Amino acid sequence: MTVTVSTESSVIDQQLAEARAAIAALPTLERVFFTACGGSYAVMMPNEYFVSSRSTSLETAAFNAAEFTARASRRVNSQSVVILCSHSGTTPETVEAARHARAAGALTVAFTHELGSPLAEAAEYVIAYQHGEGKSEAYVAPSLMLRLVAGLLDDHEGSTHGAAVDAAVASLPSVVPAVKAKYADAADAWGFSYRREELIYTMASGSNYGPAYSFAICLLQEMQWVHSAAIHAGEYFHGPFEITDVDVPFIALLGLDETRAIEERAVKFLTAHSERTLVIDAKDFGLDHLDESVRGIAAHLIFGVVLRTFADALADHRGHPLSVRRYMWRMDY
Ligand SMILES: N[C@@H]1[C@@H](O)[C@H](O)[C@@H](COP(=O)(O)O)O[C@@H]1O
Q1: Same-domain check for residues 36 and 159
Q2: Which protein residue has the closest C-alpha to ligand 1 atom 11?
Q3: What is the ipTM for the molecules in this complex?
C-alpha cells in the first residue's frame, strides 16, 4: 500500500501566509490569473468566479496551462499574480506555464502536493496541500486556494471575506463526514442503477461549474471511461437541451451562489423532460452555520466531496477502480 505523506498543517499555514504577504507587498496588482490542467484546472474555476464576482478592481481569468503559455498575453507581467496548481507537480504544461509567467515578471504561487517537484521549483511561492490518508479537509487544495484568494482580496481592497472564508474552511473537518454519511445510500443506489450507463452529462453554473467539469472529465471520462460533458446551465437552452430525453442521464447541481436561478431554470426543464436526472442541491449540505456572504462560494468545496462519493459508488458497481488508466502516465503523449 502506498502511504501518502502530507505536509504538516502548521507548515502549510506558514506557506500560505508567506504567499499572501508577497502578493500584498507587490507595488501594483492589477490581474490575477489561474492556470492548471484537468482536475487541478477545475479547482481554479470557483476561485476565478470569486475574484470576478467580488473584486472591485482586479481583472481575472482562468486558463488551461497549455493555452495560458500559448497565448503569451502581454498582460501577464509584474502587475500580475499567476496561481498554478498541479497535484504531482510534474504536469509539463503547468510547469511550463509557471516558467513562462515568471519570465514575464509575474509573481507565481503554486499549489502542489509534492514539495521538491518541478512545479515547486519553478514557482516563487509554494503551498504544499494535503491529500490521501490522514489529510484534513481544511488543508486540501480547494480549501487553501479559497483562503489565499479571500486574503488577497482583503489585502488589496480592504474587503472582509477572509474571516468568513477561514471559518467556513475550518468547519469542513466536521461538515464533510456528516455530508458523506448523508449521501452514502443515495450514492450507492445511483451507482448500482447507472453501472451500465455509457453516457452521463453533468450541469452547473457559477462557482459550481468547476466540480461539474471535474466530474465529467476526470471521474467519468478519465477514471470510468464513461462518455460525458459538463454543460453550463446557462448554455443548456442554447443547444444542449435538444439532446434531453426521458432516458438521457444527467447530474445537475443546484448551488448557493448568485447563479442559482440559472441552474434552477435548467433543472426545471430537465426534470420535466427526463426521468434520469440526479439533482444535488447544496441547500441539503447543512451549511446554514456559515456566514451568508460566503455560503455560495463555499458550496463547491462540498460538491467535490459529494460527487466523489457518487464516483466511488459507480466505480464499485462497475468493477472499474478509479485508479485504472489506458494511456495517462503509461505512454508518451
Ligand atoms: N484527473 C487529473 C487529470 O485531469 C490530470 O491531467 C492529472 C495531472 O494533474 P496534476 O497536474 O494535478 O498532477 O491528474 C489527475 O488525474
Answers
A1: yes
A2: 86
A3: 0.94
